[in-house]
Amino acid sequence: MAEMKIIGLIGAGQMGSGIAQLAAVNGVHVWLHDTDTEALTRAHNSISKNIQRLVSKGHLTRDVEADAGRRLRCTSDLDDFHSVDMVIEAIVESEDAKKKLFVQLDKITKGSAILASNTSSISITRLASATSRPSQVIGMHFMNPPPIMKLVEIIKGADTSDDTYNATRCLAERFGKTVICSNDFPGFIVNRILMPMINEAFHALHTGVATKEDIDTGMKLGTNHPMGPLELADLIGLDVCLSIMKVLHAGLGDSRYAPCPLLVQYVDAGRLGRKRGIGVYDYNTRPKEIKP
Ligand code: NAI
Fold first, then answer.
1. Which residues form the 3-hydroxyacyl-CoA dehydrogenase C-terminal domain (predicted)?
2. Which helix (H) or strand (E) is 268 found in, with range?
């Protein structure tokens, strides 16, 4: 099984930058790409700050910090990916956008490269069908935030080979993660169960069952969840939650998966959660202690 020496990360948002950080501190060279150069600059700054914080807390050494800095390179040119052993894409949760990207990657990357998607819900089999190498396409679903959360969910498409699965699993374990394996169904394991709960919390808020604070406190103290479903939705991004609900609704064909109208309305209003400073909660006025 080939070792992953250099990987490409596409999408320098909250997930892509977190995965790039994980790779760089765990000895893997990373190219980080985004079409938005400001996103690349933000990601580079936040990765440096996060690593500095880990050093100041004694979780990483200064040597690891220096090595990680050398291993991470940002680029707005996808052609730089010609030498990578694997690509992990973490762009917007849209099947069309991801398929277009996979077509490009199929042309640019070397024939042996694995193409992985961090998608939360979209069919790996359909993404693979956009390429000439479906046996080398796989889902590698990190949890948010990637440097902290212990789980990686690996999704096998219809044609994903055992070699591709083993190499992907090995990389996740090198990052210190526990792996679970899902077959290719809408939302896989985690979001098949989590997202309907979040959607139901929006229904509870929408129909006046309770305030947002009481819904979140109820689920935190009543069921021992570390975060309430509405504050978790704000962390994930309400646009991402809505995209996942649409995939569940279309793919499972049951009206109980229809996105709550309040979730749709917040996204329409640009209230996307913490990344925009406002979602269900307003983070410009909210106390800081709920941030992870
Ligand atoms: P985000 O909105 O924070 O970042 C997405 C980034 O992708 C942006 O910087 C955008 O400029 C870039 N981008 C969009 N189209 C591009 C393209 N064609 N080429 C290059 N860059 C492009 O999104 P986030 O939250 O990081 O999510 C990314 C992916 O990870 C989605 O598929 C999402 O479903 C998945 N995911 C999200 C989680 C979350 O909690 N937010 C958890 C696990 C997976």
1. 187-283
2. helix 261-268
d(CA 289, CA 139): 33
Cα separation, 144 vs 119, in Å, equals 12
Q: How far is CA 141 from CA 35, 89, 96, 122, 187, in A?
A: 21, 10, 19, 11, 10
pLDDT in tens, 124-172: 999 999 999 999 999 999 999 999 999 999 999 999 999 999 999 999 9
Give the residue ranges of the annotated binding site: 11-16, 34, 93, 98, 120, 144, 275
Residue whose Cα lies nearest atom 11 of ligand 1: it is 36
Active site residues: 120, 141, 153, 191
Alpha helices in 61-147 (DSSP H): 62-71, 95-108, 124-128
Please report where in the chains the tokens 């889902």 appear, as a residue: 139
ipTM above 0.95, yes or no: yes
- The answer to whether 86 and 110 have CB atoms below 8 angstroms apart is no
User: Which residues, at least 6 apart from 154, have a Cβ–Cβ distance to it below 8 Å?
Assistant: 138, 139, 140, 141, 165, 168, 169, 172, 179, 180, 181, 182
